[in-house]
Protein backbone atom coordinates (compact mmCIF):
# COMPACT_ATOMS: atom_id res chain seq x y z
CA UNK A 1 0.00 0.00 0.00
CA UNK A 2 1.10 3.51 -0.80
CA UNK A 3 0.41 6.43 1.55
CA UNK A 4 -0.35 9.76 -0.17
CA UNK A 5 0.28 13.19 1.35
CA UNK A 6 -0.73 16.33 -0.55
CA UNK A 7 0.61 19.80 0.20
CA UNK A 8 -2.15 20.59 2.71
CA UNK A 9 -1.61 17.25 4.49
CA UNK A 10 2.10 18.03 4.85
CA UNK A 11 1.43 21.49 6.24
CA UNK A 12 -0.92 20.05 8.85
CA UNK A 13 1.48 17.38 10.12
CA UNK A 14 2.84 17.64 13.64
CA UNK A 15 6.16 19.52 13.50
CA UNK A 16 8.55 16.69 14.47
CA UNK A 17 6.72 14.15 12.30
CA UNK A 18 6.99 16.54 9.33
CA UNK A 19 10.69 17.18 9.99
CA UNK A 20 11.38 13.44 10.10
CA UNK A 21 9.35 12.78 6.95
CA UNK A 22 10.67 15.62 4.79
CA UNK A 23 14.26 15.06 5.92
CA UNK A 24 13.89 11.48 4.63
CA UNK A 25 12.45 12.16 1.19
CA UNK A 26 15.62 13.34 -0.52
CA UNK A 27 17.21 9.90 -0.04
CA UNK A 28 20.57 9.09 1.54
CA UNK A 29 22.86 11.95 2.55
CA UNK A 30 26.58 12.39 3.05
CA UNK A 31 28.00 12.50 6.59
CA UNK A 32 30.68 15.14 7.09
CA UNK A 33 32.23 17.04 9.96
CA UNK A 34 32.91 20.71 9.28
CA UNK A 35 35.87 22.06 11.25
CA UNK A 36 36.35 25.78 12.02
CA UNK A 37 38.04 28.12 14.49
CA UNK A 38 36.82 31.43 15.90
CA UNK A 39 38.87 34.64 16.01
CA UNK A 40 39.39 34.08 19.73
CA UNK A 41 40.83 30.62 19.14
CA UNK A 42 37.99 28.26 20.03
CA UNK A 43 37.84 25.32 17.60
CA UNK A 44 34.46 24.00 16.49
CA UNK A 45 33.41 20.84 14.71
CA UNK A 46 29.86 20.05 13.63
CA UNK A 47 28.14 17.32 11.65
CA UNK A 48 26.45 18.25 8.37
CA UNK A 49 24.40 15.99 6.08
CA UNK A 50 23.99 18.57 3.32
CA UNK A 51 27.45 18.68 1.71
CA UNK A 52 26.97 18.33 -2.04
CA UNK A 53 29.21 18.24 -5.12
CA UNK A 54 28.86 21.37 -7.25
CA UNK A 55 31.57 20.95 -9.86
CA UNK A 56 34.99 19.43 -10.53
CA UNK A 57 36.69 22.26 -12.47
CA UNK A 58 36.96 24.43 -10.48
CA UNK A 59 36.58 21.99 -7.59
CA UNK A 60 33.55 23.30 -5.69
CA UNK A 61 31.47 21.85 -2.85
CA UNK A 62 28.40 23.40 -1.26
CA UNK A 63 26.48 22.88 1.96
CA UNK A 64 23.22 24.21 3.34
CA UNK A 65 23.51 26.44 6.41
CA UNK A 66 20.33 26.37 8.51
CA UNK A 67 18.93 29.73 9.70
CA UNK A 68 21.55 31.16 12.06
CA UNK A 69 20.41 32.04 15.58
CA UNK A 70 22.27 32.27 18.87
CA UNK A 71 24.22 29.18 17.87
CA UNK A 72 25.54 28.86 14.32
CA UNK A 73 29.19 28.80 15.43
CA UNK A 74 30.25 27.09 12.22
CA UNK A 75 28.77 29.86 10.08
CA UNK A 76 30.14 32.68 12.23
CA UNK A 77 33.62 31.15 12.26
CA UNK A 78 33.63 30.72 8.48
CA UNK A 79 32.74 34.37 7.97
CA UNK A 80 35.53 35.42 10.35
CA UNK A 81 38.18 33.13 8.98
CA UNK A 82 37.22 32.47 5.35
CA UNK A 83 38.33 28.85 5.65
CA UNK A 84 36.88 25.58 6.96
CA UNK A 85 37.46 21.88 6.62
CA UNK A 86 35.16 19.05 5.47
CA UNK A 87 36.00 15.63 6.93
CA UNK A 88 34.28 12.33 6.10
CA UNK A 89 32.63 10.46 8.97
CA UNK A 90 33.66 6.83 9.34
CA UNK A 91 31.85 4.11 11.22
CA UNK A 92 34.21 4.00 14.22
CA UNK A 93 33.50 7.62 15.23
CA UNK A 94 29.97 8.10 13.83
CA UNK A 95 28.36 8.34 17.26
CA UNK A 96 30.90 10.95 18.41
CA UNK A 97 30.26 12.83 15.17
CA UNK A 98 26.49 12.79 15.76
CA UNK A 99 26.83 14.36 19.21
CA UNK A 100 28.68 17.39 17.82
CA UNK A 101 25.13 18.55 16.94
CA UNK A 102 24.30 19.16 20.62
CA UNK A 103 24.14 22.85 21.52
CA UNK A 104 27.44 23.36 23.34
CA UNK A 105 28.21 26.87 24.57
CA UNK A 106 30.54 29.04 22.53
CA UNK A 107 33.55 28.50 24.83
CA UNK A 108 33.39 24.68 24.50
CA UNK A 109 35.10 22.96 21.59
CA UNK A 110 33.12 20.01 20.26
CA UNK A 111 36.52 18.41 19.57
CA UNK A 112 37.02 18.14 23.33
CA UNK A 113 33.41 17.38 24.24
CA UNK A 114 33.12 14.57 21.65
CA UNK A 115 36.66 13.16 21.91
CA UNK A 116 37.73 14.10 18.39
CA UNK A 117 41.21 15.43 17.59
CA UNK A 118 41.93 18.72 15.82
CA UNK A 119 44.78 18.44 13.33
CA UNK A 120 46.67 21.30 11.66
CA UNK A 121 48.03 20.56 8.18
CA UNK A 122 50.01 22.50 5.55
CA UNK A 123 49.55 25.79 7.41
CA UNK A 124 45.82 25.74 6.66
CA UNK A 125 43.98 28.10 9.06
CA UNK A 126 41.14 25.74 10.07
CA UNK A 127 41.31 22.45 11.97
CA UNK A 128 40.97 19.08 10.24
CA UNK A 129 39.67 15.99 12.07
CA UNK A 130 42.58 13.60 12.65
CA UNK A 131 40.29 10.54 12.81
CA UNK A 132 39.06 11.13 9.25
CA UNK A 133 40.79 9.61 6.23
CA UNK A 134 39.22 11.93 3.64
CA UNK A 135 39.60 15.58 4.59
CA UNK A 136 39.31 18.74 2.58
CA UNK A 137 40.59 22.27 3.19
CA UNK A 138 37.94 24.69 1.87
CA UNK A 139 37.88 28.43 1.18
CA UNK A 140 34.48 30.16 1.10
CA UNK A 141 33.89 31.69 -2.34
CA UNK A 142 30.18 32.55 -2.31
CA UNK A 143 27.25 32.71 0.09
CA UNK A 144 23.84 32.47 -1.55
CA UNK A 145 20.96 33.42 0.76
CA UNK A 146 17.77 31.45 0.03
CA UNK A 147 14.91 33.77 0.94
CA UNK A 148 12.29 30.99 0.76
CA UNK A 149 13.34 29.61 4.14
CA UNK A 150 16.28 31.72 5.36
CA UNK A 151 18.85 29.05 4.68
CA UNK A 152 22.17 29.87 3.01
CA UNK A 153 23.96 27.90 0.32
CA UNK A 154 27.64 28.06 1.29
CA UNK A 155 29.94 27.45 -1.67
CA UNK A 156 33.62 26.72 -1.17
CA UNK A 157 36.60 25.86 -3.32
CA UNK A 158 38.86 22.90 -2.53
CA UNK A 159 42.34 24.16 -1.55
CA UNK A 160 43.70 20.95 -0.02
CA UNK A 161 42.58 17.35 -0.26
CA UNK A 162 43.94 14.51 1.90
CA UNK A 163 42.90 10.95 1.02
CA UNK A 164 43.98 7.61 2.46
CA UNK A 165 46.00 6.07 -0.36
CA UNK A 166 44.51 2.61 0.02
CA UNK A 167 41.08 4.01 -0.93
CA UNK A 168 42.28 5.99 -3.97
CA UNK A 169 41.59 4.07 -7.18
CA UNK A 170 43.71 4.25 -10.37
CA UNK A 171 40.94 6.25 -12.12
CA UNK A 172 40.70 8.86 -9.36
CA UNK A 173 37.62 7.46 -7.61
CA UNK A 174 37.74 7.17 -3.85
CA UNK A 175 36.39 3.80 -2.70
CA UNK A 176 34.42 5.18 0.24
CA UNK A 177 33.71 1.68 1.56
CA UNK A 178 37.46 1.15 2.13
CA UNK A 179 37.47 3.97 4.68
CA UNK A 180 34.13 2.88 6.21
CA UNK A 181 32.26 6.06 5.33
CA UNK A 182 28.72 6.15 6.67
CA UNK A 183 25.65 7.84 5.24
CA UNK A 184 22.66 9.45 6.91
CA UNK A 185 18.94 9.43 6.30
CA UNK A 186 16.46 11.75 7.93
CA UNK A 187 17.85 13.57 10.95
CA UNK A 188 19.62 10.83 12.85
CA UNK A 189 19.67 7.43 11.13
CA UNK A 190 23.19 6.17 10.32
CA UNK A 191 24.07 3.48 7.80
CA UNK A 192 26.87 1.30 6.56
CA UNK A 193 27.34 1.16 2.81
CA UNK A 194 28.28 -1.79 0.61
CA UNK A 195 29.19 -1.34 -3.06
CA UNK A 196 27.48 -3.55 -5.61
CA UNK A 197 28.37 -2.04 -9.00
CA UNK A 198 30.68 0.42 -10.70
CA UNK A 199 28.87 1.00 -13.98
CA UNK A 200 30.41 2.29 -17.21
CA UNK A 201 29.75 5.78 -18.57
CA UNK A 202 26.31 5.35 -20.19
CA UNK A 203 26.13 5.44 -23.99
CA UNK A 204 23.01 4.91 -26.11
CA UNK A 205 25.03 2.60 -28.36
CA UNK A 206 26.03 0.33 -25.46
CA UNK A 207 22.84 -0.32 -23.53
CA UNK A 208 22.51 -3.59 -21.61
CA UNK A 209 19.70 -5.93 -22.65
CA UNK A 210 17.09 -4.89 -20.08
CA UNK A 211 14.59 -7.51 -21.33
CA UNK A 212 16.66 -10.40 -19.97
CA UNK B 1 49.60 6.64 4.02
CA UNK B 2 47.75 9.81 3.14
CA UNK B 3 47.94 11.35 -0.34
CA UNK B 4 47.89 15.16 -0.44
CA UNK B 5 46.63 17.25 -3.37
CA UNK B 6 46.86 21.05 -3.22
CA UNK B 7 44.86 23.38 -5.45
CA UNK B 8 47.51 23.45 -8.19
CA UNK B 9 47.79 19.64 -8.13
CA UNK B 10 44.02 19.36 -8.62
CA UNK B 11 44.02 21.82 -11.52
CA UNK B 12 46.75 19.83 -13.26
CA UNK B 13 45.06 16.44 -12.98
CA UNK B 14 43.87 14.71 -16.15
CA UNK B 15 40.22 15.70 -16.72
CA UNK B 16 38.53 12.32 -16.12
CA UNK B 17 40.72 11.55 -13.10
CA UNK B 18 39.81 14.94 -11.60
CA UNK B 19 36.09 14.41 -12.30
CA UNK B 20 36.19 11.00 -10.58
CA UNK B 21 38.15 12.34 -7.62
CA UNK B 22 36.15 15.51 -6.97
CA UNK B 23 32.83 13.75 -7.51
CA UNK B 24 33.89 11.37 -4.71
CA UNK B 25 34.95 13.89 -2.09
CA UNK B 26 31.52 15.05 -0.95
CA UNK B 27 30.72 11.52 0.32
CA UNK B 28 27.69 9.38 -0.51
CA UNK B 29 24.91 10.88 -2.63
CA UNK B 30 21.21 10.23 -3.07
CA UNK B 31 19.99 8.36 -6.17
CA UNK B 32 16.86 9.82 -7.71
CA UNK B 33 15.09 9.76 -11.05
CA UNK B 34 13.62 13.08 -12.14
CA UNK B 35 10.55 12.68 -14.38
CA UNK B 36 9.34 15.41 -16.75
CA UNK B 37 7.32 15.89 -19.95
CA UNK B 38 7.90 18.33 -22.81
CA UNK B 39 5.23 20.58 -24.31
CA UNK B 40 5.05 18.24 -27.29
CA UNK B 41 4.32 15.27 -25.07
CA UNK B 42 7.65 13.41 -24.88
CA UNK B 43 8.28 12.08 -21.38
CA UNK B 44 11.80 12.18 -19.94
CA UNK B 45 13.38 10.53 -16.95
CA UNK B 46 16.96 11.10 -15.82
CA UNK B 47 19.10 10.07 -12.88
CA UNK B 48 20.40 12.77 -10.53
CA UNK B 49 22.75 12.34 -7.56
CA UNK B 50 22.45 15.94 -6.35
CA UNK B 51 18.96 16.07 -4.81
CA UNK B 52 19.31 17.62 -1.37
CA UNK B 53 16.99 18.53 1.50
CA UNK B 54 16.55 22.29 1.88
CA UNK B 55 13.85 22.60 4.52
CA UNK B 56 10.79 20.89 6.01
CA UNK B 57 8.42 23.87 6.48
CA UNK B 58 7.80 24.73 3.71
CA UNK B 59 8.86 21.35 2.29
CA UNK B 60 11.65 22.21 -0.15
CA UNK B 61 14.13 20.08 -2.08
CA UNK B 62 16.88 21.29 -4.38
CA UNK B 63 19.05 19.75 -7.07
CA UNK B 64 22.02 20.92 -9.09
CA UNK B 65 21.42 21.32 -12.82
CA UNK B 66 24.66 20.94 -14.80
CA UNK B 67 25.38 23.55 -17.51
CA UNK B 68 22.65 23.13 -20.13
CA UNK B 69 23.77 22.45 -23.69
CA UNK B 70 22.07 20.70 -26.59
CA UNK B 71 20.77 18.11 -24.16
CA UNK B 72 19.37 19.23 -20.81
CA UNK B 73 15.88 17.89 -21.56
CA UNK B 74 15.03 17.72 -17.87
CA UNK B 75 15.77 21.41 -17.38
CA UNK B 76 13.95 22.53 -20.52
CA UNK B 77 10.88 20.46 -19.64
CA UNK B 78 10.75 21.86 -16.11
CA UNK B 79 10.84 25.42 -17.44
CA UNK B 80 8.02 24.63 -19.89
CA UNK B 81 5.83 22.74 -17.45
CA UNK B 82 6.69 24.10 -14.00
CA UNK B 83 6.41 20.62 -12.50
CA UNK B 84 8.59 17.53 -12.20
CA UNK B 85 8.78 14.37 -10.11
CA UNK B 86 11.56 12.98 -7.89
CA UNK B 87 11.55 9.19 -7.52
CA UNK B 88 13.88 7.13 -5.32
CA UNK B 89 16.04 4.51 -7.05
CA UNK B 90 15.81 1.00 -5.61
CA UNK B 91 18.25 -1.83 -6.06
CA UNK B 92 16.13 -3.84 -8.54
CA UNK B 93 16.12 -1.06 -11.18
CA UNK B 94 19.38 0.75 -10.35
CA UNK B 95 21.09 -0.31 -13.58
CA UNK B 96 18.13 0.84 -15.69
CA UNK B 97 18.18 4.11 -13.76
CA UNK B 98 21.90 4.60 -14.47
CA UNK B 99 21.42 4.24 -18.22
CA UNK B 100 18.91 7.11 -18.32
CA UNK B 101 22.08 9.25 -18.28
CA UNK B 102 22.95 8.21 -21.86
CA UNK B 103 22.39 10.99 -24.40
CA UNK B 104 19.15 9.86 -26.07
CA UNK B 105 17.74 12.14 -28.77
CA UNK B 106 14.90 14.47 -27.86
CA UNK B 107 12.20 12.27 -29.46
CA UNK B 108 13.14 9.20 -27.39
CA UNK B 109 11.67 8.74 -23.93
CA UNK B 110 14.14 7.25 -21.46
CA UNK B 111 11.14 5.51 -19.91
CA UNK B 112 10.89 3.39 -23.07
CA UNK B 113 14.63 3.07 -23.70
CA UNK B 114 15.37 1.94 -20.12
CA UNK B 115 12.23 -0.14 -19.50
CA UNK B 116 10.80 2.09 -16.78
CA UNK B 117 7.07 2.88 -16.51
CA UNK B 118 5.57 6.38 -16.48
CA UNK B 119 2.72 6.73 -14.00
CA UNK B 120 0.19 9.57 -13.76
CA UNK B 121 -1.16 10.27 -10.29
CA UNK B 122 -3.65 12.77 -8.80
CA UNK B 123 -3.80 14.79 -12.01
CA UNK B 124 -0.19 15.91 -11.52
CA UNK B 125 1.25 17.18 -14.84
CA UNK B 126 4.57 15.28 -14.76
CA UNK B 127 5.19 11.52 -14.88
CA UNK B 128 6.15 9.53 -11.79
CA UNK B 129 8.17 6.30 -12.01
CA UNK B 130 5.86 3.38 -11.24
CA UNK B 131 8.74 1.15 -10.06
CA UNK B 132 9.63 3.60 -7.27
CA UNK B 133 8.11 3.35 -3.79
CA UNK B 134 9.02 6.89 -2.69
CA UNK B 135 7.92 9.49 -5.25
CA UNK B 136 7.43 13.21 -4.98
CA UNK B 137 5.49 15.67 -7.12
CA UNK B 138 7.48 18.93 -7.22
CA UNK B 139 6.70 22.47 -8.39
CA UNK B 140 9.66 24.70 -9.31
CA UNK B 141 9.72 27.74 -7.03
CA UNK B 142 13.15 29.25 -7.66
CA UNK B 143 16.12 28.88 -10.01
CA UNK B 144 19.41 30.17 -8.63
CA UNK B 145 22.15 30.51 -11.27
CA UNK B 146 25.62 29.84 -9.86
CA UNK B 147 27.99 31.99 -11.92
CA UNK B 148 31.12 30.24 -10.58
CA UNK B 149 30.56 27.24 -12.86
CA UNK B 150 27.32 27.87 -14.78
CA UNK B 151 25.33 25.35 -12.76
CA UNK B 152 21.83 26.15 -11.53
CA UNK B 153 20.35 25.34 -8.12
CA UNK B 154 16.79 24.25 -8.86
CA UNK B 155 14.50 24.64 -5.84
CA UNK B 156 11.10 23.00 -5.74
CA UNK B 157 8.25 22.65 -3.28
CA UNK B 158 6.71 19.26 -2.46
CA UNK B 159 3.11 19.15 -3.73
CA UNK B 160 2.54 15.40 -3.49
CA UNK B 161 4.36 12.66 -1.65
CA UNK B 162 3.77 8.94 -2.13
CA UNK B 163 5.48 6.51 0.27
CA UNK B 164 5.20 2.75 0.63
CA UNK B 165 3.40 2.33 3.96
CA UNK B 166 5.62 -0.50 5.16
CA UNK B 167 8.61 1.87 5.15
CA UNK B 168 6.86 4.74 6.96
CA UNK B 169 7.77 4.76 10.66
CA UNK B 170 5.49 5.99 13.49
CA UNK B 171 7.68 9.10 13.95
CA UNK B 172 7.50 10.09 10.26
CA UNK B 173 10.89 8.71 9.23
CA UNK B 174 11.06 6.66 6.06
CA UNK B 175 13.16 3.52 6.56
CA UNK B 176 14.94 3.73 3.22
CA UNK B 177 16.43 0.26 3.66
CA UNK B 178 12.92 -1.26 3.63
CA UNK B 179 12.46 -0.04 0.04
CA UNK B 180 16.02 -1.00 -0.97
CA UNK B 181 17.13 2.54 -1.79
CA UNK B 182 20.65 2.73 -3.21
CA UNK B 183 23.20 5.49 -2.90
CA UNK B 184 25.87 6.72 -5.30
CA UNK B 185 29.48 7.77 -4.95
CA UNK B 186 31.49 9.50 -7.61
CA UNK B 187 29.92 9.35 -11.04
CA UNK B 188 28.87 5.74 -11.33
CA UNK B 189 29.44 3.62 -8.22
CA UNK B 190 26.22 2.19 -6.72
CA UNK B 191 25.80 0.88 -3.19
CA UNK B 192 23.45 -1.00 -0.90
CA UNK B 193 22.84 0.55 2.47
CA UNK B 194 22.40 -1.12 5.86
CA UNK B 195 21.22 0.81 8.92
CA UNK B 196 23.24 0.47 12.12
CA UNK B 197 21.86 3.17 14.44
CA UNK B 198 19.00 5.61 14.89
CA UNK B 199 20.46 8.02 17.41
CA UNK B 200 18.52 10.33 19.73
CA UNK B 201 18.37 14.09 19.23
CA UNK B 202 21.72 15.21 20.68
CA UNK B 203 21.67 17.12 23.97
CA UNK B 204 24.71 18.33 25.92
CA UNK B 205 23.11 16.98 29.10
CA UNK B 206 22.76 13.46 27.68
CA UNK B 207 26.13 12.67 26.12
CA UNK B 208 27.25 9.03 25.96
CA UNK B 209 30.44 8.11 27.81
CA UNK B 210 32.90 8.35 24.91
CA UNK B 211 35.82 7.23 27.08
CA UNK B 212 34.51 3.67 27.38
Total strand segments of chain A: 13
Principal-axes shape call of chain A: globular
The low-confidence parts of chain A are: none
Measure the end-to-end span of chain A: 28 Å
Computed over alpha carbons, the radius of gyration of chain A is: 19 Å
Report the portion of residues of chain A in β strands: 35-45%
What are the key terms here?
13 strands; homodimer; three-stranded antiparallel sheet; alpha+beta
Quick summary of this structure?
2 copies of one chain form a homodimer. Chain A is of the alpha+beta class.
Mind explaining what this structure looks like?
The structure is a homodimer of 212-residue chains. Chain A is of the alpha+beta class and 212 residues long. Chain A has helices at residues 7-12, 15-24, 73-81, 94-99, 110-113, and strands at residues 2-6, 29-30, 32-37, 43-48, 52-56, 59-65, 83-88, 118-119, 128-129, 134-146, 151-164, 183-185, 189-198. In chain A, the strands form 3 sheets. Chain A has a 7-stranded antiparallel sheet with strand order 4-3-7-10-11-6-5.
Amino acid sequence: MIKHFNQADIQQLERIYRANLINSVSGYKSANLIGTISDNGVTNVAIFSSVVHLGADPALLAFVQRPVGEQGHTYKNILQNGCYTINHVHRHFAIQAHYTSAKFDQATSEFDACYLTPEWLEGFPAPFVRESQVKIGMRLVQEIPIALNNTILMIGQVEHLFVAEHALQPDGRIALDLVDDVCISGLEAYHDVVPFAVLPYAKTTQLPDFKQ
